[in-house]
Design a protein that fits this description.
2 domains, 14 helices, three-stranded mixed sheet, N-(1-d-carboxylethyl)-l-norvaline Dehydrogenase, domain 2, 295 residues, alpha/beta, 52% helix
């Protein structure tokens, strides 16, 4: 069994998990990777990573980047023979806060520390070290990973007890997603009234309407570059989590409800596996329909 400060496991090699692995390799860590479909590990193995059937059995610190809390619990259950006291599990999945708390309590029974550590930013931002990391869980475990946080993101916020970071990630994703939808609507509106969308984007970047989404997604929207940095269907999953959490708190979120409808419509148009900026296709499809109906 390979242990030590420089040995880190990564479970889940989707867009974010692959970016995390690349960062770890770049910073000299010995990275042990696992994914349900092994072929996704091949590019990372070519760069120096090692395949592992169970990173929990080989590493004292393991990062997890999967689709949902349910999947995280399922995979940890499959690999539970690798769990041992003193380990730290760093879960970057955007999940259900209550599930994160429950998983943390479950792992604590085996002496394993659990940190819910969702990352705000696209896989490309993570790859460049520009993302924001939010961390919840045991403060001692957080401190024991001080070498990893600068690798994972530019800004790191320790937010307290387990589940607190997952809650904050939902808040962040609510605002980020609405910014993205507003930009898509604004650019589509500009084009519909005869304003060049590229010129509109330039003006918006220099105005009080500015948001970082314009830098990250604006050009992709203009050119129709929907190669995924973060998939639209995954953000729809997050919006559903947001609405569920709000309902539990007795709060109505009308903008997020509208946003959910737009994302569902984009999925119907075939954009689920595309970048989340492909939400702009909803407006393009609607404008085409309006033009056809007006003839």
């Amino acid at each position: 069994m390979e242990t030590g400060k420089q040995s880190v496991g990564v479970i889940g090699l989707g867009l974010m998990g692959a970016a995390i692995s690349e960062r770890l390799i770049e910073f000299g860590y010995r990275v042990h990777v696992w994914n349900r479909s092994r072929d996704k590990a091949d590019p990372l193995i070519a760069r120096g990573a090692t395949w592992s059937d169970n990173p929990l059995a080989e590493c004292d610190r393991v990062l997890i980047s999967l689709y949902s809390s349910d999947v995280v619990a399922q995979v940890i259950g499959q690999m539970q023979t690798g769990l041992r006291a003193g380990q730290i599990v760093i879960d970057t999945t955007t999940g259900e806060p209550q599930d994160c708390v429950a998983l943390g309590q479950q792992l604590a029974q085996a002496g394993v520390s659990y940190l819910d550590s969702p990352i705000s930013g696209s896989s490309e931002q993570t790859r460049r070290g520009e993302a924001t990391v939010m961390v919840g869980g045991c403060s001692a475990a957080y401190a024991a990973c001080n070498d990893l946080w600068p690798v994972l993101g530019k800004s790191v916020f320790y937010l307290g007890a387990s589940g607190s970071a997952s809650k904050m990630k939902l808040v962040s994703n609510l605002i980020l997603g609405l910014n993205r939808a507003a930009l898509a609507e604004g650019l589509s509106f500009a084009q519909s009234i005869g304003v060049d969308p590229a010129a509109a984007l330039d003006v918006l970047r220099g105005s009080a309407a500015y948001s970082r989404v314009m830098d990250i997604k604006g050009q992709k929207m203009l050119t129709g570059d929907f190669r995924p940095q973060a998939k639209l269907s995954q953000h729809l999953k997050d919006v559903r989590l947001i609405l569920n959490a709000a309902a539990d708190a007795g709060l109505n979120l009308p903008l997020s409800m509208t946003h959910r409808g737009l994302l569902v419509q984009a999925e119907v148009l075939g954009c689920g596996e595309l970048d989340n900026c492909s939400i702009i296709t909803v407006y393009q499809d609607t404008s085409s329909t309006v033009r056809e109906q007006s003839r």
